[in-house]
Amino acid sequence: SKRVAILLSGGGSNMMTLVDSMTGDHPARPCFVGSNDPNAGGLAKAAAQGIPTGAVDHKPFGKDRGAFEDALRALIDAHAPDIVCLAGFMRVLTADFVQAYEGRMLNIHPSLLPKYKGLHTHARALEAGDAEAGCTVHEVTPLLDDGPILGQARVAVEAGDTPDTLAQRVLTQEHRLYPAVLRRFASGDRTPVIL
Ligand code: GAR
């Protein structure tokens, strides 16, 4: 089966839904969970599932993104993944890193791309008065939050929504969308998943 490495920076709820999905006849299995933050909550959750984990703290590298990424790549590549899933990984990646996993690295982003690349997506959707919000899984290319869309899920914006309430409702959809996209992608099918 395909080997999947997952990178995160935070609590790892998306990582957990991916891990939980990779059982039975699923075409992939988790091989590694990595982070730029040694204290990320998701690392402990993965370790508790018996998955190898590791971190490269970006802070000591300062502005030297290349050296940070070389160290992270060495850690990832030691586990020989076929697919790399970014799941709440909050460092911008250089073209060199992206090219090392070209065509086999996915990201989940909490907006309906191409709208609201970057940060504060929910506040920006509310500010714009959008009637709907959502999340996107896409193939990672050197441009930030760009690349072919592999799936989207939409949610209605409700009266009284704040960035936090909207984020929570979108996150629930992320937990449906990302496993559905990974399963399809790991089986060699890039047809977008529309939920
Ligand atoms: C998710 O909402 C994900 O879409 C977002 O961070 C959250 C991570 O939550 N990712 C980004 O904003 C990427 N720029 P999690 O750690 O519970 O999966």
Automatic annotation (TrEMBL):
N(1)-(5-phospho-beta-D-ribosyl)glycinamide binds at residues 12-14. Pfam families: Formyl_trans_N. The record marks 145 as: Raises pKa of active site His. Pathway: Purine metabolism; IMP biosynthesis via de novo pathway; N(2)-formyl-N(1)-(5-phospho-D-ribosyl)glycinamide from N(1)-(5-phospho-D-ribosyl)glycinamide (10-formyl THF route): step 1/1. It catalyses: N(1)-(5-phospho-beta-D-ribosyl)glycinamide + (6R)-10-formyltetrahydrofolate = N(2)-formyl-N(1)-(5-phospho-beta-D-ribosyl)glycinamide + (6S)-5,6,7,8-tetrahydrofolate + H(+). Transmembrane segments: none annotated. Keywords: Purine biosynthesis, Transferase. The active site is at 109 (proton donor). Residues 2-182 form the Formyl transferase N-terminal domain. It comes from the Bacteria. The keyword Transferase applies. Its EC number is 2.1.2.2. (6R)-10-formyltetrahydrofolate binds at residues 65, 107. InterPro entries: Formyl_transf_N, Formyl_transf_N_sf, GART. HAMAP family: PurN. Belongs to the GART family. PANTHER family: PHOSPHORIBOSYLGLYCINAMIDE FORMYLTRANSFERASE. Catalyzes the transfer of a formyl group from 10-formyltetrahydrofolate to 5-phospho-ribosyl-glycinamide (GAR), producing 5-phospho-ribosyl-N-formylglycinamide (FGAR) and tetrahydrofolate. This is Phosphoribosylglycinamide formyltransferase.
